[in-house]
Amino acid sequence: MLDQLRISASPGAIEQDALPQILVVEDNETLLAFLANRLGTHYRLLLASNGARAWELAQQHLPDLVISDVMMPLMDGFELTQRLKTSSVTDHIAVILLTDKAAPKSRLDGLGHGADDYIAKPFQLDELTLRVSMSRKTLDRKVQSLTQLAPNELIRNYQLLRGAELLGSGQPISQVAYQVGFESPSHFSYAFRELYALTPSEFARRY
């Protein structure tokens, strides 16, 4: 069975934990394996063969995106989407539904349950990949509505918070700068002063 956790990354890419995570839900094992093979070089993947298992994985791992078939055993894609979009824990997760039903009513049903996008089978892999670029915008909007910060600002503030903790433990500024992901100590110092109104040296002297 392909109903399992799978984590992949392209050789030489950024660390796996930094890659976006996608939950792929499909009861056709051949199609599930195909999607896993094609998407697994650029994303961390969670795989499920039915909606019930997908709902468990979504709550546990909070993926960035769910790509789901509609017609599945135990829980179909419509119900899965509705659960994801009506829970405050998972409502930020973007959802793309895949289905053999291309009729306008079926599309409206999917979108009515909260899906962010809808793709009829058979589909071109290039189209699916493009829709996955587009669906991350939903996550960006959710982050900004919750924190009043753009995702890159939120990440930068976390880096600087971690940097402040390391400076407080006595580590040198240059080491801290690279350790929290800045390209240079001068860049780290500039961003640190912007956020805390203190240079890293001034901050460190207070500890």
TrEMBL record:
Q: Where is the Response regulatory domain?
A: 21-136
UniProt protein name: Response regulator
**Transcription as a keyword?**
yes
Q: Which organism is it from?
A: Larkinella insperata
Name all HTH araC/xylS-type domain ranges: 109-206
**Which Pfam families does this one have?**
HTH_AraC, Response_reg
Q: Which InterPro entries match?
A: CheY-like_superfamily (IPR011006), Homeodomain-like_sf (IPR009057), HTH_AraC (IPR018060), HTH_AraC-typ_CS (IPR018062), Sig_transdc_resp-reg_receiver (IPR001789), Tscrpt_reg_AraC-type_HTH (IPR020449)
Q: Does the keyword Chloroplast apply?
A: no
Which ranges of the sequence are coiled-coil?
Answer: none
Q: Which PROSITE patterns match?
A: HTH_ARAC_FAMILY_1 (PS00041), HTH_ARAC_FAMILY_2 (PS01124), RESPONSE_REGULATORY (PS50110)
Keyword entries, A-Z: DNA-binding, Phosphoprotein, Transcription, Transcription regulation
Modification 4-aspartylphosphate occurs at: D69
